[in-house]
Amino acid sequence: MIMNDxxxxxxxxxxxxxxxxFFLLLSFIFWYLNELSKELQGTINYPxxxxxxxxxxxxxxxxxxxxxxxxxGPGYSIxxxxxxxxxxxxxxxxxxxxxxxxPGAAPHYYLLTSGLINxxxxxxxxxxxxxxxxxxxxxxxxDRLVTxxxxxxxxxxxxxxxxxxxxxxxxxxxxxxxxxxxxxDTLPGITTRHRSFRRxxxxxxxxxxxxxxDYLSTEQKRVVVEVTVSxxxxxxxxxxxxxxx
Length: 245
What we know:
Layout: H1 2-36, E1 39-51, E2 57-60, E3 66-74, H2 75-83, E4 90-93, E5 100-101, E6 108-112, H3 117-124, E7 129-134, E8 137-153, E9 156-158, E10 164-171, E11 174-180, H4 181-184, E12 190-191, E13 195-197, E14 204-209, E15 217-218, E16 222-231, E17 237-239
Parallel strand pairs: 1-4, 8-12, 9-13
Antiparallel strand pairs: 1-3, 2-8, 3-7, 5-6, 6-8, 8-11, 9-17, 10-16, 11-15, 14-16
């Protein structure tokens, strides 16, 4: 008798448990949809892009690539923007802003992000409110965008046999580089990516990529480095310029 009761209980659970789980899930969905229809507040980190600096100028400074926005509005709207996988960045157009200049000899500026809220809302076609943006102030500067001819500096490590010397010559030995004037003024040249060569005893040529920072642009991405090996006592060495060892 007891065994029959247990058997009936198990059969009841097998039949009723899925039904219970279904209605529980359905209740949760209705509750969640109801919550999303209410006004909620949330935070999101949103990508930003900066365009149109003054003519022949480049923006300098550590400007963030994302801004933190405090949002308030219907829960479904905030959830939608949070879950969107590929977000087109909001744009800060310097031709439509009036930055304030900081006192001092060097021309440095700042922009209050509270003044960007209406513009960002239009770009996002938002049915929620942007309460605030962090950081609340963006600091930056302008520098002249110039192009200069700069030396190519090979960065190679070569292990030579006993009694050998090496001559390293990049081709071309200089390239045109475009970037902020104050940075180009301090650079001795553009180095290649570091490469190591072991037990080299004959001449060779190798095409090597330039190690150029993102804020600089060059007329070409790679150069050919010609290595000539001849007799003279030498050993393992590293160099960052074309010279005879």
